[in-house]
Each structure stands twice: as structure tokens, then as C-alpha cells.
Design goal:
homodimer, mainly alpha, Arc Repressor Mutant, subunit A, Four Helix Bundle (Hemerythrin (Met), subunit A), two-stranded antiparallel ribbon, DNA-binding, Tscrpt_reg_HTH_GntR (chains A, B), GntR family transcriptional regulator (chains A, B), DNA-binding (chains A, B), transcription regulation (chains A, B)
DNA sequence: CCGGTCAAGTGGCTCAGCCACTATGCCACC
DNA sequence: GGTGGCATAGTGGCTGAGCCACTTGACCGG
């Protein structure tokens, strides 16, 4: 435990920027959906380079606290930039099984409706999402954006604004489970295969088969997720 | 949920770099302590700018998977760059209370011994750690490095290689609880005050008071941490 | 009122370069 | 022999300028 052997660790610049950003959000009373100052402005007012500001924003991005839209600004996802306390994270995990049950009910019905009601244009959009996910995986990404698009396209094709609204209320939690699920080795390609099966059923107009395929898919995701949760000692 | 309204989200470049880095570590069979290629080399071989490589490395840094030493290269902390599965994280949380109990026992005794055995030079090192943490907090950081140095200095001043070895075996888990604890609002300054009390007792050679101050400090940390753990439904 | 166009604003990314720090090997000196 | 100092190359930290792609909103013509 000799001290002298350890390197001198100065805090990195981006960490200080992070602190200032958190403080700014708190002081300015910003809340979810509000826009952060532009990177150039932040760099100027903090007296650092844009690259350092960007590093800080990347950190906030991977922590899911901020969403940077190319050309459109950077937006707050929550009311604060503080990392979520473990307590709340555990709390949310406990509610997750319910969310996944709800998702199964909703998406199964959505797939069924989509098979019956989809227009050719909507079918095409679903297929594009499939292609997009395939490209993502080929590039080495996990396909999370393609996955999101696929489910969004199916939802749109079902032409049920009520079911779509329900989906919206659990969208955030679904996003989280999606990311975690697709991080499992081998998951992206298996998920793509299941999407393909759903697509084919919808393309064929086979409502029953589409519902079954979607149910199987959602249950797979739920299973992966539940394995990571240990409810008690 | 119309798809066309959503921005075209191409995966950010740094995310792709991240994937390639993970793959490289796996394929090259690198393990903890090994050095990653230099940023310039990575940028060249991946065909991206150094800024993008750096963004990816910053992500790995905040995830604790990598340690970048200014001028000395970037090193692997674990044998992999994959984020820790939630399952293992939960497992470790369950063991944490034991670790904190052990820490209380060890550090209390270490403080006591330090008060009796410390040399003037060692006392000076402890004071420097205190000053360092104060500066960190003044700069807006959370003081985690100063905290680490303080406890390391006290351990060294105790002149007990056996106790020091015991501390080493739980060092990793202590580091994690340290980081999390100091993230709580107001914690850094309160922690600094407790450190000061410990320092003064050691400086005065008051073993009993030093032990008591250290016990109080460690228990405070343990309390903060335990609040975040919900053992059952 | 609608739809198209255009300019300003913004994030994504690159390039070139300087600085601070580290690691290494060499060399003078003891 | 080895020990300490020192130069040098390598490396991460950070900057500034700049280009591109995309979004946004205002403006204008129909």
C-alpha cells in the first residue's frame, strides 16, 4: 500500500465539466425535455475546448441522462443529471416483470392487428427496420436502434391509437430492457431471426401466426431479463 | 409513434469504436493490467480520428473498465471490456455488508496503531492527503482520490503488514463503496471533516480517540451504502 | 392556408499541433 | 557493479479551426 508508487491522479477535465453541467441544470431549474446550451456556448462559457465538453456529454449519453440530436441540440432526459441512486434502480427492477407482462399483452395484439390492417407502405417500413437492424449487427453494433424501429413500425401498422398510447407509457422501461437484452452474447442475431418470423407472418396477413411469433419474441426478452433479477436472499 | 418523425439515429462513431475495442481485447486475449494500443495507433488502424477514440476510452473509464495514465498508456482493469452483468452486481451487493464490517474492524485498529506508531513524515503524508481532498472538493470533484490517499496513508502509518494485507484483499470493494458514498450530496465535505478529526487524534497520539473517530467515519459510509440495498420484497 | 425554400444554428467528426507526463536506455560518477 | 541523473521517444490531455450533415424556423410564393 505504498503511496509513492501510485500515479498522481488529477481529475480529468471532462469530470469537472460534468460537475459544472450538473450544477447548471440544478441552478437553472431545468427539467426533462429542456435543451442544454449548445456545445460551442458551453465550451466558451466554461473556458474549455469543445472536445472536452463533448467527452462530458458522451458520458451523460451512455448514462442515459441526456439525448444528443444531430443538428437539433442536446436534451435532458430526466429532471437532473445526477446518476440514479441504486435504491431506485432496484425499485424499478422489481416492477419490471409487470411491465414485461403488459408488453406481451400489448405487442401480441399489435402484431395480430398489424397482420390484418397494415398497408403495403407500412409493411415496407417494417422491412426497412429489419434491414436496418441487420446492417447494425453487421457493423458490430447490437442492433438496438433497429429493434426499436421494428417494434415502432409494427405498432404504427396496427392502427390502434389506444394501444399505441399504452405502449408509450411503458416505452422508457422497454427501452432499458431492450438495451440490456441485446447486450447478451448472441442475442442480436437471434432477435433478428425472431423479427424476421414476425415480419413474414405480417406480410402474409396471418394474424394468428403473427401474434404467436410476437408472443414468443417478447417472452424471450422477458426471460433473459428476469434471469438477472434475484428477488430475495 | 410515427417512424418518419424520429431522427435518423446512426450509431455514434464512438459506439462502433467501443465494439471494436471489446472485440480486440477478446481476440487478442488481453487480461487485467495489459496495455491497450496507443490512441494514435487505434485511431489510425480503425480509420477514425483520435477524438472519437478518446470518447470511447472516456466511456470505458467512467465504467471502470480501463485506467488511462497520462503519458503512460491505457490499461485494462478487468480481463474484459464487457460491462458487468446485473446478476453479478447484485451478488456483490449482497456481500458488501460483510466487507464493511471487516473494514470497520481493520481500519479502527489501524487508526489506533497509527496514533501510536506514526513517524512525523507519515503524519505529514496523512496531512497532505487531507489537503489534497480539500483541493479536490474545492475544484468541484468529489474527493475520491484524496479519500483513498488518506486511508492508504493511515494504513501505512500503522506499521502492520498483516493488517495492510487484509485491507488489500477488500480494497476493490472498498473503492466501489467509496465512489458511491462520495456521490451523495454533501458527503464529500462531511467526509473531509471526519478525516480531519481522525488526523487530529493521530497527530495528538491519542490512540483511543483515533479509533473512535475512525469507527464513526466507517460506520457513516456503511450506513449510506446499506440504505441502497433492499434485501427482499 | 399550404408547401417549398433557404439560412442560421447545432451536433458529429476530423486534422494538426502543443503540452505534460511517463518510460526507457544511456552515461557519468561513485 | 550499481546508482543516480538526464536526454529522448512515446503517450495521454487538451486545444482551435474547420468541414459536413442535419434540424429548425422564418420567409415567401402559390
Amino acid at each position: 500500500m505504498s503511496e509513492a508508487l501510485r500515479p498522481m491522479v488529477k481529475s480529468r477535465l471532462y469530470e469537472q465539466v460534468l460537475e459544472r453541467l450538473r450544477a447548471h441544470v440544478t441552478e437553472a431549474g431545468l427539467s426533462a425535455g429542456d435543451r442544454l446550451p449548445a456545445e460551442r456556448d458551453l465550451a466558451a462559457s466554461l473556458g474549455v475546448s469543445r472536445a472536452s465538453v463533448k467527452q462530458a456529454i458522451v458520458v451523460l449519453e451512455v448514462q442515459g441522462l441526456v439525448e444528443a440530436r444531430h443538428g437539433g441540440g442536446t436534451y435532458l432526459v430526466r429532471d437532473t443529471l445526477d446518476v440514479e441512486p441504486v435504491e431506485q434502480l432496484v425499485e424499478r427492477r422489481k416492477r419490471l416483470p409487470e411491465v414485461l407482462e403488459a408488453r406481451e399483452a400489448l405487442e401480441t395484439k399489435l402484431a395480430e392487428l398489424a397482420a390484418e390492417r397494415r398497408t403495403d407502405a407500412e409493411l415496407e417500413t417494417i422491412r426497412e427496420a429489419l434491414d436496418f437492424m441487420r446492417d447494425e449487427i453487421a457493423e458490430g453494433a447490437n442492433g438496438v436502434e433497429g429493434d426499436r424501429r421494428f417494434h415502432a413500425a409494427v405498432t404504427a401498422a396496427a392502427h390502434s391509437s389506444l394501444l399505441a398510447d399504452f405502449m408509450k407509457t411503458i416505452a422508457q422501461q422497454i427501452t432499458e430492457s431492450r438495451t440490456e437484452s441485446l447486450r447478451q452474447p448472441g442475442r442480436p442475431s437471434r432477435s433478428l431471426a425472431q423479427h424476421t418470423a414476425i415480419y413474414e407472418a405480417i406480410a402474409a396477413g396471418d394474424a394468428k401466426k403473427a401474434a404467436a411469433a410476437m408472443r414468443k419474441h417478447v417472452r424471450t426478452v422477458a426471460k433473459v431479463r428476469l434471469l438477472t433479477w434475484v428477488p430475495e436472499d
